[in-house]
Amino acid sequence: MKHYAGIDIGGTSTTIGLVSEEGSIIDRSIIQIADFASDSIDLFIEQMALEVEKLAEKHECKIQGVGIGAPNGNYYNGTIEYAPNMPWKDVHPIAPVLEKRLSCPAVLTNDANAGAIGEMQFGVAKDLKDFIYITLGTGLGSGIVAGGEVIYGHDGFAGEMGHSILVPDGRNCTCGRKGCLEAYVSLRGILETYRDLGGTGETTPKDIAIRAQNGDELCVEVYRKTGNWLGLKLADAATYTSPKAYVFFGGIAAASDLFFPSLIETMEFNIHNLYRDKIQILKSGLPLNDAAVLGSAALVM
Predict the structure, then answer these.
(1) The CATH number of domain 3-109, selected from 3.40.50.720, 3.30.420.40, 3.30.70.20, 2.40.50.100
(2) pLDDT digits over 142-160, tens only?
(3) Where are the alpha helices (DSSP H) in 160-215?
(4) Neighbours of 264 (CB within 10 A)
(5) Is the distance from CB of 69 to CB of 8 less than 8 angstroms?
(6) How far apart are the C-alpha atoms of 5 and 223, rounded to whole Å?
(7) What percentage of the chain exceeds 70 in pLDDT?
(8) At the topology level of CATH, where does 124-283 sit?
């Protein structure tokens, strides 16, 4: 049996998983990003390499390759570039260093692209050649697949739907611009919508979801508007690649019953008639805690 390492680099922690070729996570370890200061990217990369070696030694196996999913990951160069939520703000080669250090292939892409590949390999997109994978969490990420291939663009950064403009001169976005979709459809966006609609007091997106499911009118409206905003952008996105499906993943997607109805209604109302009633709306087939690692491993497979 062949074994691979799947690495999910997140804003607060990094998970390193030992993955079988069948898509089972055999073991994993976690690194806390806070343990590495802004000037210690080299130490962070070395720690990832050590964790991969520990997992391989523990399970007496050879690592065939390392796949890495990371924010602002550049597939072509294997670099993380100016990631806003990471302590290292410049361009840093991750895959080339790990490849040399571990003497095996290492491939890196952004986390949403890795998720799309994992969905094709192990999830609901096994039979899909044209779909858009959307992660809904702290931010909004997306990976676009056309003809069975992830679209990277000329520079490796294609597919950032979360940073398309929804409202000109609207809410501030972490990317430094205003009005991005992510500023409205994300955990951050849900909290801001709640406050815009008159919500007061300390609360969390999870609290808002629970209250919406219990019929709280204000919280129901928060999710209705969230679905409307996303549905409008999905209607636009259909014109670019004519996807067979949109596949949703992430913490917000777990509350899909709260916003899928308004999403679908808005998308179908605004979509060009060439694409109307042709696009499936699907939830990810991968476990929430495993998807990023499996997707990263699938990238190098």
Answers:
(1) 3.30.420.40
(2) 999 999 999 999 999 999 9
(3) 187-196, 205-213
(4) 16
(5) yes
(6) 37
(7) 100
(8) Nucleotidyltransferase; domain 5 (3.30.420)
Domain boundary assignment for the chain: 3-109, 124-283
Q: How far apart are CA 112 and CA 72, in angstroms?
A: 10
CA 174, 179, 181, 183 dihedral sign is positive
CA nearest 246: which of 219, 258, 264, 265?
264
The pLDDT score that the predictor gives to residue 160 is 92
Contact 67, 301 (CB under 8 A): yes
Same fold, 3-109 and 124-283: yes
Average pLDDT over residues 65-87: 91
SS3 call for 12:
coil
Strand ranges for 1-110 from DSSP E = 3-9, 13-20, 25-32, 63-70, 73-74, 79-81, 91-93, 106-110
CA distance 100 to 108: 14
Cβ(13)–Cβ(51) under 8 Å? no
Q: Alpha-carbon distance 49 to 101, whole Å?
A: 7
Q: What is the pTM of this model?
A: 0.92
Lookup result for tokens 């073991």: 27
Q: Which helix (H) or strand (E) holds 264?
A: helix 256-270
Q: Identify the residue whose tokens are 């928060």.
A: 222
